[in-house]
Amino acid sequence: MAALTKVAYASTLLAALWVGICSSVCVEVPSETEAVQGSRMKLLCISCMKREEVSANTLVKWFYKPKGGQDVAIYEYNNEKRELESPFQGRLEWNGSADMQDVSISVLNISLNDSGIYTCNVTREFLFETHRPIFTSSTLIHLTVVEDAGKDVTSFISAIMMYILLVFLTLWLLIEMIYCYRKVSKAEETAQENATNYLAIPVGDEFAPECHLQQRSPADSRTKKSLQPD
Ligand SMILES: *[C@@H]1O[C@H](CO)[C@@H](O)[C@H](O)[C@H]1NC(C)=O
Ligand SMILES: *[C@@H]1O[C@H](CO)[C@@H](O)[C@H](O)[C@H]1NC(C)=O
Ligand SMILES: *[C@@H]1O[C@H](CO)[C@@H](O)[C@H](O)[C@H]1NC(C)=O
Ligand SMILES: *[C@@H]1O[C@H](CO)[C@@H](O)[C@H](O)[C@H]1NC(C)=O
């Protein structure tokens, strides 16, 4: 369900945005995993620093692994941006932030052939006075590149189907409610009639077993009712 993923992604983004507005807290938002052929795809990789006040050396390495293939280094940021030799050369652009918490890159003019697993490896060396601990983080992005038309048609059809289903279900619910209401009111009517009939039994009659048998015939009960004084 691509639509569902979109919704989940949008809500995560919204939550991140909200947090971002309220305080400039770093949030590790996952990357979108579907790209449209020929477009610019931002491979989002955010690696938050727990201690922003400490300066650090950050080394970023991006890898690409095609289906059934090996990891190939495609991009590196080590003090300076560098595109590595790969089928992506000339199509990659640094899209990170100055504080090196967002270390995203963008793939320009993405093709169907670019589907696969992208890995973003971040190595950080914190520069304390006495020691220099090193932290690493790794993010995987399973990217699927789709053709524009196919994707649009399926999402369009599923949206239409959803609305048709919604209208149909609402109508069905309405019909069912009317049907039930009529059934209930009819049953109530019958119950009331039965109750009147039942109350009518003792009037003018002894408690004889034949009495109940007589009650079964509607013509009889009508006569009985008409005999009743108002
Ligand atoms: C990063 O990507 C956005 C679109 O996703 C673009 O508008 C912006 O210019 C990019 N920044 C850099 C530094 O490439
Ligand atoms: C995008 O890539 C396709 C091949 O994958 C190429 O034919 C086309 O010219 C490229 N478009 C741009 C704007 O670079
Ligand atoms: C598709 O990708 C494979 C491996 O990444 C590469 O060998 C091949 O030349 C690519 N084909 C096209 C049409 O770009
Ligand atoms: C990225 O880093 C992780 C953990 O540091 C490591 O296990 C993995 O092999 C690295 N990926 C690549 C493609 O080097």
UniProtKB/TrEMBL annotation:
InterPro entries: Ig-like_dom, Ig-like_dom_sf, Ig-like_fold, Ig_V-set, Na_channel_b1/b3. Residues 1-24 form the signal peptide. It is a single-pass type I membrane protein. Coiled coil: none annotated. One of its GO terms (biological process) is ventricular cardiac muscle cell action potential. Keywords: Cell membrane, Disulfide bond, Glycoprotein, Immunoglobulin domain, Ion channel, Ion transport, Membrane, Signal, Sodium, Sodium channel, Sodium transport, Transmembrane, Transmembrane helix, Transport, Voltage-gated channel. Residues 23-123 form the Ig-like domain. The chain crosses the membrane at residues 156-175. GO terms for cellular component: voltage-gated sodium channel complex. It is found in: Cell membrane. Its main location: membrane. It comes from the Eukaryota. GO terms for molecular function: sodium channel activity; sodium channel inhibitor activity; transmembrane transporter binding. A voltage-gated sodium (Nav) channel consists of an ion-conducting pore-forming alpha subunit functional on its own that is regulated by one or more beta subunits. Forms homodimers and homotrimers. SCN3B is non-covalently associated with alpha subunits and induces the formation of alpha subunit oligomers, including trimers. Interacts with SCN5A/Nav1.5; regulatory subunit of SCN5A/Nav1.5. Interacts with SCN7A/Nav2.1; probable regulatory subunit of SCN7A/Nav2.1. Interacts with SCN10A; regulatory subunit of SCN10A/Nav1.8. Belongs to the sodium channel auxiliary subunit SCN3B (TC 8.A.17) family. PANTHER family: SODIUM CHANNEL SUBUNIT BETA-1 AND 3, SODIUM CHANNEL SUBUNIT BETA-3. This is Sodium channel regulatory subunit beta-3. The lineage of its organism: Eukaryota, Metazoa, Chordata, Craniata, Vertebrata.
